[in-house]
Amino acid sequence: MKVLYICTHNRCRSILSEAITNHFANSVITAKSAGSQPVGEVHPLSLKYLTEACISTQGLQSQSWDEFEAFEPDLVVTVCDSAAGETCPVWFGKSVKVHWGLSDPSKLTGSEDVIADAFRATIAQIAARVKDLASIAEKPFTPESLRASLAKLGAH
């Protein structure tokens, strides 16, 4: 299964999702991430807390969804509310599209401990979702069965 995670700026949540998916499910899922308005750099705390979790950050970059037309994802997952409401490129037409929202730990203010806890919680939440997604990807699926399975897991 090929998955493209989308977040408007492609600097935190979609990046985390890409890295965690490739770390935990790389035998059954290939993940990429992109943004509709990428900022061009990965949030430094995304890299810090992925590294802390022993998840590779090699090759992660903030990039436009326009760069992934040839990727032909089976599944496009928006992880931020603003990306969920955007009009997707026409080439997403064959992909199953779902929204699986995540809070943005990079926008928190407060102590270093509060921010660290938020990143760790987001990483744990994504890892749990990836485990569920990998169990779906291990079996043959159709777009309809994939959409139904994801709906049971809380994706919209």
What does this structure look like?
With 156 residues, the protein is an alpha/beta fold. It has one domain: Response regulator (Rossmann fold). Helices cover 40% and strands 12% of the residues. Helix 1 links the parallel strand 1 and strand 2. Helix 1 packs across helix 4 and helix 2 (44-52) crosses helix 4. The longest helix is centred in the last third of the chain and has 26 residues, at 112-137. The chain is globular, with a radius of gyration of 15 Å.
Task: Itemize the secondary structure elements and their pairings.
Blueprint: E1 2-6, H1 13-25, E2 30-34, H2 44-52, E3 75-78, H3 81-84, E4 96-99, H4 112-137, H5 143-152
Parallel strand pairs: 1-2, 1-3, 3-4
**CATH level-3 fold name:** Rossmann fold
So what's the overall shape? globular
Structural class: alpha/beta
Please state the second-level CATH architecture: 3-Layer(aba) Sandwich
Number of helices: 5
Summarize the main sheet.
4 strands, parallel
Using only CA atoms, what is the Rg? 15 Å
Please give the CATH class: Alpha Beta
Lateral arrangement of strands in the main beta sheet:
2-1-3-4
Distance between the termini: 19 Å
Secondary-structure element sequence? EHEHEHEHH
As residue ranges, the low-confidence spans are none
Q: Count the domains.
A: 1
The amount of beta strand, in percent, is: 5-15%
